[in-house]
Amino acid sequence: MSTIDPSSLDAVLRQAVDSGAVPGVAAVVSSRDGVLYEGAAGRLHAGDDAAPEVGPDTMFRLASMTKAMASVAALQCVEDGLVALDTPVADVLPEFGELQVLDGWDGDTPRLRAPSRPPNLQDLLTHTAGLGYFFTNPDLFKWHEVTGAPNVLTGKKAGLMTPLVRDPGLEWEYSIATDWLGLVVEALRGGTLDAVLAERVFGPLGMTDATFRPSDEQRARLMGIHSRTEDGGLAPAPIDLPREFEFAAGGSGAYATARDHGRFLRALLRGGELDGARVLGEGTTELMFTEFLDGIVQPEAGIKSTVPALANDVPPFPVKQGWGLGLHLRHEHVPGMRLAGSGDWAGLFNCYYWIDRSAGMSAAILTQVLPFFDEQIVQSLLAFELALYAAQPAAV
User: Fold this and answer.
1) Please, are residues 148 and 187 in contact by the beta-carbon 8 Å criterion?
2) What is the pLDDT of residues 98-149, one digit of tens each?
3) Which residues are catalytic?
4) Where along the chain do its domains lie?
5) Structure pTM?
6) Residue 396 has pLDDT above 60, yes or no
7) What's the half-sphere exposure (Cβ side, CA atoms, 13 Å) at 254?
8) Per-residue CA distances from 396 to 6, 214, 333, 359, 361 (Å)
9) The CATH number fitting domain 7-391, selected from 3.40.710.10, 1.10.10.350, 3.90.1010.10, 3.30.470.10
10) Where in the numbering of this chain does the Beta-lactamase-related domain appear (predicted)?
């Protein structure tokens, strides 16, 4: 198995810590055959020289990196004949059929109507069901303010009972769709999503620390959440994911180490199998990397934040993009970086990953800083990716 000279990648991670971009960071790069690079720098808590150093056993809140895992669990249900991609969600979850479209406001009174058609499983997998997020959609942000309804990050199931913001199948909008997808899995399997993933994904793939409910020992290895201060520094963030929750959030609830997450990425890189354990068929895995937004509007202005403490605006993507069944897709190659056809996504606390099947490589870089899409961290991510592709072996 080929390996990668770690020196340039180690230097990027050290620079990210030394510059104050991150308190600590871990990264993992894999080929289809094994781990090419594993590195870390910094500590679990910024400015605390007594805090444990970041290492391969450091735990991270994956946040939206959970979405690909929940998507695999849903696609397993499709493979097992329990549901089809065109099955209306309300056929599995009748409460989903209660959701109406928020069609504007009369003062503080929402105008609601029925959707043009029932959203289906494929809509959930591709974020085209008409749902949104309170921290990226101003109508939903107002909805929570006016109604006092909890948001999805509280761990309360009522946080999912928000209206659609448009009819399904018309536009892509980042959303709570994967949280609903997790409930679909639960209804079909007869168990909680965390238990289903433990049995059908985490266990088979040897992801020994992956969990929705970290133990006290795992929490001792969990990096603290930091927030970017006005002067560009880092401070402990006054926010965390709930320890107790009413549902296992398919959109944000998993914790894992970089090493564990690297095993999940390797399985997708290998077509759904790792070390003899198959969690998804090759054909179904291919659908995760297949464009499903043909003709569906994508946001030209990028993603706008309504809660600056949680997320910065994400600018328009500079290359042609799309969405498969559970993965964001890149359709153009940028010289010196990942190749066209790669699948990727990220997590709220500035964790990022991608799967480059053409280069035969997957990678993830993880930290715990708010708000999302932090400029300093994004620059470190770009530096890591450029260093990685410059250092990669001729054949991986």
Assistant:
1) no
2) 999 999 999 999 999 999 999 999 999 999 999 999 999 999 999 999 999 9
3) 64, 67, 174
4) 7-391
5) 0.97
6) no
7) 34
8) 15, 34, 18, 7, 7
9) 3.40.710.10
10) 9-372
